[in-house]
Design a protein that fits this description.
There is one protein chain. The chain is of the alpha/beta class. Helices cover 39% and strands 16% of the residues. It has a six-stranded parallel β-sheet with strand order 3-2-4-5-7-6, sandwiched between helices. Helix 22 links the parallel strand 18 and strand 19. The chain is globular, with a radius of gyration of 26 Å. The termini are far apart. The chain binds adenosine-5'-diphosphate and magnesium ion. Adenosine-5'-diphosphate binds next to helix 11 and strand 12.
Length: 589
């Protein structure tokens, strides 16, 4: 017989509690409902009215990873969802906690990661009349429009339905973030235990794949076969689907070169002979047929315009029908689940004769050789530079990660993001997690925790100093849960770099104050690791960095490496400076 009060040893908010052992609360029903859909892990930050939810879930065997800020807990949940194909679950308190978490739930929606944010909310009556109540906010309506789906559960008997609906919404079709609101009254409502057990549900086939129609497969194969310079473009949707062998088979059977988007790196090893990773421009400008697999023609691909061959045609394997044609005409849409699409393609491929120009792949391979040699030379040229720049540091890191291909790389920043993506080869699927479609900062500590928890693998997070600042306090959560995460901070003292100039004039109030991009080039981030008992390193040379990273990975314990870079290393906005209204160099005269 469940007695929820037994699960709340040090919790002060024990009202309301069942009066009789045969009674349970809504919180108990919520925990059971989550277990029924297979949730065994949660991330969150508790307080009124969900403290007991955390305790009860933990008491029921669900792992609960507590955080310092809800956004970071949400980033952990979204990364957990991306890596497991099960919704990552975030638990938040009402009002501000809800809003902080909603940033991550929205980000999960943009990135197509399955996630459920569960939040407690205050008494509905004074909220609806705007009478002023504790943490009063109409959370359901705030969430709507930002997430894939949003539901509120008002009665304990509806809790199992709410959880199942949220689960299905998160994983089905195009995955996304779902918001599930529980009023305080619902969480505290009391039901008879037997009645509660009867309403629990286990969903049948919660991810049911929709098979694309065969005509769309034939149309796609016909176009692909006719191409002289075809290419396959792999996105993180392809990595997410976990059909690595089938994608490899499609690439290798057709012999068509592929270009991986950032988080699809490693889906096939970056040194694969058909990898056109270094030939982005050539593919955009010259390919006559490009097959998009789990990738969108969004801003990261110039929305299909700009450099792209204007006469090129697209095939798109995509689960969401309304993604098709949203930027550029798609000649052969294949709408449905990617696995089913690729199975059908592999089965029908022998019926088609590919007309690829025999010179196309060797041409791309030659370019790859030249570009890779240029890249290697860049690393070598900067190898001994002191103080270090981004390339010096990456030159020191590259061989260590090459020796440890199974380490998951988390990466955010501006130059730190761009240069790391270019310098570090990925050899295994789903081993690179970055700020993704929205190009947001602040996913570092959360995603590192989510990745470590989801996989049990070691994580190395390469962080710009500014990017780290958004989630840095949750390094303490890495330490509390003793996770095998090494955080590497590239400290160049600023957003983009540490040489921003104050443009005010003598006499103006801000004269002499730090520039908007200036942070703390002399900060000792390693002391943060000392505060929480993690192994800490402060490194100023590539040799020290190599040694520290090797030791940190081998320890399988929390570690932080503060990498001192030159303040002038890095340029404004990294590779995407063109998105600024005016180049900063032209503003500062
Ligand atoms: P990238 O940024 O790497 O290009 P995106 O996140 O923009 O990747 O695109 C991923 C795409 O994959 C989304 O359009 C999403 O709808 C699609 N997708 C996700 N799951 C599936 C699936 N099972 N079958 C087909 N497409 C999928
Ligand atoms: Mg910086």
């Amino acid at each position: 017989m469940a007695d929820t009060t037994n699960n709340t040893p040090s919790c002060s908010c024990q009202k309301p509690a069942p009066k009789f052992p045969e009674q349970v609360t809504g919180m108990y029903i919520l925990a059971q409902s989550l277990k029924k859909v297979g949730v065994d892990t949660m991330f969150g930050l508790v307080g009124i009215p969900v403290t007991e939810v955390g305790y009860i879930c933990q008491g029921e065997g669900i792992r609960f990873f507590s955080f310092r800020h809800e956004q970071n807990a949400g980033m952990a949940a979204q990364t957990y969802g991306y890596l497991t194909r099960k919704p990552g679950v975030l638990l938040t308190v009402s009002s501000l906690g809800f809003l902080n978490g909603l940033t991550a739930t929205t980000n999960a929606t943009v990135n197509c990661y399955p996630m459920i944010q569960i939040s407690g909310s205050s008494d509905r009556v004074p909220i609806d009349l705007e009478q002023g109540t504790y943490e009063g906010l109409d959370q359901l309506n705030v969430a709507k429009g930002l997430v894939k789906a949003a539901y509120r559960v008002n009665r304990p008997e509806d809790i199992p339905t709410g959880v199942v609906r949220a689960y299905r919404a998160a994983v089905s079709g195009r995955p996304g973030g779902v918001y599930l609101d529980f009023t305080t009254q619902c969480l505290g409502a009391i039901m008879d235990h037997d009645a509660a057990e009867k309403i629990l549900q286990t969903p049948v086939d919660p991810y049911s794949e929709v098979v694309p129609n065969e005509a769309s497969i034939d149309r796609a194969l016909q176009l692909l076969a006719s191409a002289k310079k075809p290419a396959i473009l792999l996105g993180k949707g392809a990595a997410y689907r976990q059909i690595d062998e089938k994608i490899k088979k499609l690439v290798e059977t057709t012999g068509i070169p592929y270009y991986p988007m950032s988080m699809a790196k490693g889906l096939l090893p970056d040194n694969h002979p058909l990898s056109a990773l270094s030939c982005r421009s050539e593919i955009m400008e010259q390919s006559d047929v490009v097959m998009l697999i789990g990738a969108r023609l969004n801003w990261l691909l110039s929305r299909g315009h700009g450099k792209w061959n204007p006469d090129g045609q697209f095939i798109q394997l995509e689960v969401d029908p309304i993604e098709i044609d949203c930027n550029r005409h798609i000649a052969a849409p294949v709408v449905g689940d990617m696995e089913a699409a690729i199975d059908l393609m592999l089965a029908k491929l022998p019926n088609y004769k590919l007309q690829m120009d025999p010179k196309w792949v060797p041409y791309l391979q030659d370019i790859t050789k030249v570009k890779n040699a240029k890249f290697a030379a860049r690393l070598t040229a900067n190898a001994d530079k002191l103080p270090m720049d981004h390339w010096t540091a990456l030159g020191a890191i590259k061989p260590v990660l090459a020796e440890n291909p199974d380490v998951i790389l988390v990466n955010e920043g501006a130059n730190t993001l761009d240069d790391t993506r270019d310098a570090i080869d990925m050899m295994l699927p789903r081993h690179r997690i970055d700020c993704a479609t929205w190009a947001i900062m602040g996913m570092g500590m959360g995603s590192s925790i989510g990745a470590a928890v989801a996989t049990g693998k070691s994580v190395v997070a390469i962080e710009g100093d500014s990017a780290f600042g958004f989630s840095g306090m949750d390094f303490s959560s890495i330490c509390r849960f003793k996770l095998p995460v090494c955080v590497v901070i590239f400290n160049n003292g600023g957003i983009y770099n540490g040489i921003g100039q104050n443009m005010s004039k003598p006499g103006e109030p801000s004269f002499g104050e730090p520039a908007p991009t200036t942070l703390d080039v002399e900060a000792r981030y390693d002391k943060l690791a000392d505060a929480f008992g993690a192994k800490s390193y402060y490194v100023t040379t590539p040799a020290e960095l190599t040694a520290a990273l090797k030791e940190a990975i081998a320890s399988k314990a929390p570690a932080l490496i503060d990498v001192q870079l030159a303040a002038d290393s890095g340029k404004e906005s990294g590779h995407i400076g063109y998105l600024n209204p005016t180049p900063l160099q032209d503003v500062i005269v």
